[in-house]
Model the fold of this input.
Amino acid sequence: MFTLELIKVAYDKVKTGADFPNYIQELIDMGIEGYDTYTADSRVVYFGANNDDASTDRKHTDFPVASTVNKERFIEYLVMHQGGQTDYITFCEQAAQCGIAKWRIDIIGMTCTYFSAEGEAIIIEKLPV
Done:
């Protein structure tokens, strides 16, 4: 079973997108199967086996999610973030500006899917672990 406290210890080691692979490995070790991140407030809902789940509090006031997706600009922000050029909150704000409402990390399938507010999958990428 996992707790928010254990997740926080792993997350606190992440300073940029370049630290993400080690974070994912720690979540796997805890039994987490995936999680959803909501760009509006950076709230994260983790889920695992046996219907275990844990949800963080909001991390900031809402970033408005654009009603139109700008996939090309989002890809630019994503590449910058994965290269360590932006922090987590900045990336969430940029994603919201580009119409990304949430992303789902599927640890079992080793994918990250970015969704519009309508639930349309915009980008699906393999996790870099």
About this structure: The helical segments are 4-11, 20-30, 71-82, 88-97. Strands lie at 32-38, 43-48, 53-55, 102-106, 111-115, 121-126. The chain has one domain: 4-126.
